[in-house]
Design a protein that fits this description.
Length: 150
């Protein structure tokens, strides 16, 4: 993503477990590895309307995939190894833009993975990639308690 743009995803509002539409504006800081983003819960405006309103044009909306997981203490190291092993395959996927992992400040041990894709088809291809599916199953069964996968 060269400039900023709007994305949409499903995420529970704070204090809720039900996923609702959230739209966020994401802007990568030029020359730094930081991204600024702000989001709102809104069911009324389309991404096209938001892009027109904010002057973003010529670039199709990106897709963000959020994956939240809390690895078991005894499985965290193995879980992270599993994720690292997939990284080279992830980087080769058509439509892949970037991935970042964050540690929760509010809940010790909880991790959030954010991947950004050119479109829904690219994100779906990664979701269904055979080695990724196998790692998901192994991670879920052996190493973690997955709380949200979006």
């Amino acid at each position: 993503m060269r400039g900023g743009g709007w994305i949409e995803f499903v995420c529970p509002k704070p204090g809720s477990t039900e996923g609702v539409r959230k739209i966020s504006y994401i802007y990568p800081v030029p020359g730094l590895r930081y991204t600024v983003c702000a989001g709102i819960y809104d069911n009324t405006m389309s991404l096209d309307e938001l892009n027109r309103m904010s002057g973003v044009s010529g670039e199709s909306p990106k897709v963000a995939v959020l994956f939240e997981v809390k690895p078991k203490t005894e499985g965290k190291e193995e879980y992270l190894k599993l994720a690292a092993a997939l990284k080279t395959e992830l980087a080769k996927m058509p439509g892949f833009i970037r991935v970042e992992r964050f540690a929760s400040l509010n809940e010790e041990g909880k991790l959030l993975s954010l991947s950004v894709w050119e479109n829904e088809e690219a994100a779906a291809a990664w979701r269904n990639q055979i080695n990724h599916r196998g790692s998901q199953k192994k991670g879920h069964d052996a190493f973690s308690s997955i709380t949200i996968s979006l």
